[in-house]
Amino acid sequence: MDLVVILGDQLTPDIAALRASNAASAIVLMAEVGTETTYAWHHKQKLVLVLSAMRHFADELRGLGWTVDYVELTDPDNSQSLDGEVARAARRHGATRILATEAAEWRVRELQRGWSAHTGLPVDIAQDDRFIASHAMFDTWADGRREWTMEFFYREMRRQTGLLLDGGGQPLGGRWNFDSENRKPARPDLFMPKPLSFAPDARTQGVIDLVNARFADNPGRLERFGYAVTRRDAEQAQAHFLSAMLPRFGDYQDAMLTGAETLYHSVLSPYINLGLLDPLALCRAAEAEYLSGAAPLNSVEGFIRQIIGWREYVRGVYWHEMPGYRDRNALEARRDLPWFYWDGQTDMNCLRQTIGQTLETAYAHHIQRLMITGNFAMLAGIDPFQVHEWYLAIYIDAFEWVELPNTLGMSQFGDGGLLGSKPYAASANYISGMSDYCQGCRFNPRQRHGADACPFNALYWDFLVRNRDRFSANPRLKRSYMVWDRFDPDEQAATRAHAAGVLLALEAVAARRPDR
Ligand code: FAD
Ligand code: SF4
After folding, report:
1. Which of 25, 159, 309, 358 is deepest in the core (most CB within 10 A)?
2. How confident is the model at residue 26 (pLDDT cuts 50, 70, 90)?
3. What's the average model confidence in pLDDT over 204-228?
4. Residue 191 has pLDDT above 80, yes or no
5. Whole-structure pTM value
6. Residue 220 DSSP one-character state
7. Which of 113, 107, 141, 146 is nearest to 322 (CA)?
8. Is a pLDDT exceeding 70 seen at residue 171?
9. Any idea what the Cα angle at residue 260 is, between residues 258 and 263, rounded to 5°?
10. Confidence of residue 421 (pLDDT cuts 50, 70, 90)
11. Longest dimension (CA), the chain
12. Is the pLDDT of residue 160 over 80?
């Protein structure tokens, strides 16, 4: 008898471990365990999404003829650890072999390595071929070059998948990348379609009650929970995105607008990461929208790049660099994370809006994550590990393999430039250009010092000056250093003094952080 172990982000009916067995001679084990619900201080909506999607997936598998042994969190016999549940189930069913698909996260992959010793049974771990690039493909690509650039990796992925290529293997439209067309600021009068929202069914409501009772102190609110928890609903969300949002996805990809929480973004990452949607099939569906004339190339190429480019690339970097990657801190940033990241109570409107919507919905789009919360943390010299803990906890789509490289690498420059050649540092100038947040803010985005000065400005210059040795030769930052050097000494001193005051105030806020 095979025991096939399915993890919470492996909700795919033809996942490798299921393909390697058959419904007639296997028991599928799915277990909700305490260690998985507490390794991060998860947003309540994330807990509901994962647990409810797991429960619905167990039904889906039963409908396909599999026998599923599902252990709920509140089962009195639950050992509350994955190891414990695998061993218990192996004994319960007299298993002769354990099958699994490799875990996406390092932490859980390490557990899988111990299962054979733990149970005394042979354990077969299959590669997760829902990812388009295998570990071997990424390692071959990465080990053969001095510098890693996502853009070149992405071109390999286009060639491998054939997406958006003509018959001669050349990119449609004559270019690989249309990013330069994707930086329009949004206007409030744009027609803004919303992603589909799904009313909780009885099963999801049961999980909401469980989370309210058991995780009452966790961050986030549940009132607006409307994520899809079944494949059918996730597919509906995908279809809605393709028809209603994809055509303008590119144009407004970098824009931020008060009250427009998702703009033209897909909000499909939670479903892709859990296995409810297939990333390659989604890209082919997006490509079909271009080929039929329903969506322009800048949107479709931009969307596909995020998935076969960035998503696959960060996974490759994660597995190539772990386990040491998590502890990197190239800029030696040591400050504690200010408490307002957990409750949104700050006068800085851009941060208040972004964190506020995150607490409400567990979602913020890429530029909010990168250029508001991430940018501020990097400018303020916050310890990247604490920043990572926040992102891992608070977002609906957060799993370490994708969150960590994005946070520690892309947003904090903690890996010293492995993921991006330049730090994503910006002053209020960028934020006021790409959003309307500054219009509703008590701070002045044009001032560098003084009582009303926007804190991003002084922190931006202070960050550049603090890290001059590292960044002054970077061609993409040279201009900023030239601008700083042209300020007169009094202006420089006042700006740095203002930054010192902001940092001191932040330390006081961080110190008020309650124990959790
Ligand atoms: P869209 O804008 O509609 O993009 C389409 C899809 O592309 C996404 O669904 C996602 O699957 C993929 N994608 C886009 N950008 C990236 C990226 N940089 N890395 C990987 N995939 C990408 N993404 C996560 O899935 N989980 C995380 O925990 C996560 N943490 C992040 C932390 C920081 C600091 C930053 C800057 C980015 C993070 N991202 C993470 C990447 C990105 O922000 C989200 O994938 C995206 O915002 C999800 O929303 P969406 O589905 O509306 O994306
Ligand atoms: Fe953010 Fe500064 Fe603009 Fe206020 S003025 S919204 S703090 S960038």
Report:
1. 358
2. very high
3. 97
4. no
5. 0.97
6. S
7. 107
8. yes
9. 130
10. confident
11. 79
12. yes
Atom of ligand 2 nearest to the CA of 431: 8
CA of 46 to the centre of ligand 2 (A): 29
Ligand nearest to the CA of 313: 1
Nearest residue CA, atom 50 of ligand 1?
267
- What is the arithmetic mean of pLDDT over 420-445? 95
Token look-up 């990424």 returns 138
Q: What pLDDT does 512 receive? A: 56
Please check the confidence at residue 514 and state whether its pLDDT lies above 80.
no
Question: Which long-range CB contacts under 8 A does 87-94 form with residues at least 24 apart?
Answer: 87/118, 87/119, 89/3, 89/27, 89/29, 89/31, 90/3, 90/119, 90/121, 93/1, 93/3, 93/27, 93/69, 94/1
- CA angle at residue 414 from 47 to 366, to 5 degrees? 50
Query: In the block, which residue shows the tokens 């492995």?
Result: 418
Q: For residues 418 and 365, is the Cβ–Cβ distance under 8 A?
A: no
The total number of residues written for the chain in this structure: 516
| Confidence class for position 221, pLDDT limits 50, 70, 90 | very high
* Cβ(416)–Cβ(384) below 8 Å: no
Residue 188 · residue 439 · CB < 8 Å: no
Place of tokens 């296997």: 26
Could you say which DSSP state residue 69 is in?
E
For ligand 2, which residues put their CB under 6 angstroms from it? 348-350, 428, 431-432, 437-438, 441, 443, 445, 454, 456
Please name which ligand lies nearest the alpha carbon of 435: 2
- Helices (H), ranges, 292-383: 297-304, 312-321, 340-343, 349-361, 366-367, 375-379
The tokens for 212 are 């309210």
pLDDT at 463: 98
87-107 confidence digits (pLDDT tens): 999 999 999 999 999 999 999
Which ligand number lies closest to the CA of residue 358?
Answer: 1
Q: Which atom of ligand 1 is nearest to the CA of 399?
A: 28
Residues 6+ apart with CB under 8 A from 30: 6, 54, 57, 58, 68, 69, 70, 71
pLDDT at position 59 is 98
Of 320, 287, 266, 305, which is closest to residue 150 (Cα–Cα)? Answer: 305
φ, ψ dihedrals at 307, nearest 5°: -90, -55
pLDDT of residue 179: 85
| Backbone φ and ψ of 3, nearest 5° | -110, 115
Please list the residues that pair with 26 across neighbouring strands.
Answer: 2
pLDDT at 127 over 80: yes
Q: Which atom of ligand 2 is nearest to the CA of 428?
A: 8
